[in-house]
């Protein structure tokens, strides 16, 4: 059984070419603190209480990259659980201090599962 720890982040899509407008809205209008750094695929990250909000430009297509990300106690156990249930795992760019993979539910919704390296949290 997968042991969930918490919701880590949510990634939402913004139209292509709108990162600057999104940065202004989320930082100035909503007052969120941007998390600096070079994030995967040009994303911008913001802190909301104890979770992160990730924004990334995305072309409209049949499968979106939008997803919630769940921190789990044991990522390897979660991986084994999905494999035993014939759920396909997807991998993406690496993020320092985090191990992760993605799945899609039977309806095409993307979900990320991650575990922080012990030195990170």
From TrEMBL:
It comes from Spirosoma aureum. It comes from the Bacteria. This is Phage portal protein. It holds the Pfam family Glyoxalase. InterPro entries: Glyas_Bleomycin-R_OHBP_Dase (IPR029068), Glyas_Fos-R_dOase_dom (IPR004360), VOC_core (IPR037523). Gene3D superfamilies: 2,3-Dihydroxybiphenyl 1,2-Dioxygenase, domain 1. The lineage of its organism: Bacteria, Pseudomonadati, Bacteroidota, Cytophagia, Cytophagales. Coiled coil: none annotated. Residues 6-116 form the VOC domain. SUPFAM superfamilies: Glyoxalase/Bleomycin resistance protein/Dihydroxybiphenyl dioxygenase.
